Amino acid sequence: MEPTREQALGIYRMMHLIRRFEERVAECFAGGEIPGFIHLSVGQEAVPAAVCALLREDDLVAATHRGHGQCLAKGADPRRMMAELFGRATGYCRGRGGSMHLCHLPRGFVGTNGVVGANLPIAVGTALAAQIRGSGQVTVGFFGDGAANTGAAHEALNLASVWDLPLVFVCENNLYAEFTPQAVHTKATAIAERAAAYKMAGVTVDGNDAVAVFAAAADALDRARHGAGPTLVEALTYRYRGHHEGDPMAYRTKEEVESWRQRDPIPRFQGWLLGKGFLSEADDQRLVAEVQSEVDAATEFARQGPWPAPEATLEDVYA
């Protein structure tokens, strides 16, 4: 299944928005405007953009600690996202969640999660709730190759299969668990092979090919929505930046990074769009300029937002 022209252009725009947003976050973090730790997904844009293009507004996404792109792709406002990263009261969590605890429930974004693999049992819970209510909602649980080796991930996969839940597991396999290559921490070459152990469908796709991700996600979401149970989709991709901002990346070579840059998902999808006649050079330039303006506006919105009042620390505290 290939995306329609409208879907394809939406995916392409979202990929650019995620890339520009993440690059701006890197700049602002380096400039001391954003506190805490930041984990960016530059290079992985095709996966959330293509998967979330197929979701309904009321479908749910349980994201990772590297989840800015997943949040944007689910329809969050870049301005309020940026404000949250800046710690401002105008952010989605009023400046309290930051990068790793970012949430926007009205658009079905259950949240980013600072604990590796901990979002997957949450995804099982939201999928179970949808099944009980008969709402027709599907949950997508994103995770990485490192999270694949956590107990929480195995428990989530098992329960989702046992209960035939409307859930799609999407492994963004960027080949590194923090600083450790996949070959060191996992003997099996394909994480999707594990699906067989849980009697669920599993597939490995090129995560830098937006069309391939779209097709795999479409099949998985169709199964989930029609009662055929969960699917494990493994998308092979790569992050260009470190595990976190400030990571010197001494664990990989410049040649490796450059080889993956040759497979950058954005120009690859641009070429596909141009070849299909879905995009012209002029339209492409306009789209890129619009996205840049949107990110500029989001940054200014964040900078102008007020800090949370000191007394706000007493709100929403339960003990």
Q: What does this molecule look like?
A:
This protein has 319 residues and is an alpha/beta fold. Helix content is 43%, strand content 11%. The chain is built from 11 helices and 8 strands. The chain has helices spanning 5-30, 46-52, 68-73, 78-85, 119-133, 151-162, 182-185, 210-225, 254-261, 265-276, 281-304, and strands spanning 60-62, 109-111, 139-144, 167-173, 176-177, 180-181, 201-206, 231-236. Strands 2-1-3-4-8-7 form a 6-stranded parallel beta sheet, sandwiched between helices. A hairpin with a 2-residue loop joins strand 5 and strand 6 (180-181). The radius of gyration is 19 Å and the shape is globular. The termini are far apart. The mean pLDDT is 96.
List keywords for this structure.
single chain, 319 residues, alpha/beta, six-stranded parallel beta sheet, two-stranded antiparallel ribbon, 11 helices, 8 strands
Outline of the structure:
The chain has 11 helices and 8 strands.
Question: How is the topology of this model organized?
Answer:
Blueprint: H1 5-30, H2 46-52, E1 60-62, H3 68-73, H4 78-85, E2 109-111, H5 119-133, E3 139-144, H6 151-162, E4 167-173, E5 176-177, E6 180-181, H7 182-185, E7 201-206, H8 210-225, E8 231-236, H9 254-261, H10 265-276, H11 281-304
Parallel strand pairs: 1-2, 1-3, 3-4, 4-8, 7-8
Antiparallel strand pairs: 5-6
Helix pairs in contact: 1-2, 1-10, 1-11, 2-8, 4-11, 5-6
What is the terminal-to-terminal distance? 50 Å
Poorly predicted spans: none
Query: Which outline best applies?
Result: globular
Count of helical regions: 11
Number of strands: 8
The main β sheet shows up as: 6 strands, parallel
Gyration radius over CA: 19 Å
Strand content: 5-15%
Strand order of the largest sheet: 2-1-3-4-8-7
Query: On the 0-100 scale, what is the average pLDDT?
Result: 96
User: What is the string of SSEs from the N terminus onward?
Assistant: HHEHHEHEHEEEHEHEHHH
Strand-pairing-aware structural class: alpha/beta
Helix content: 40-55%
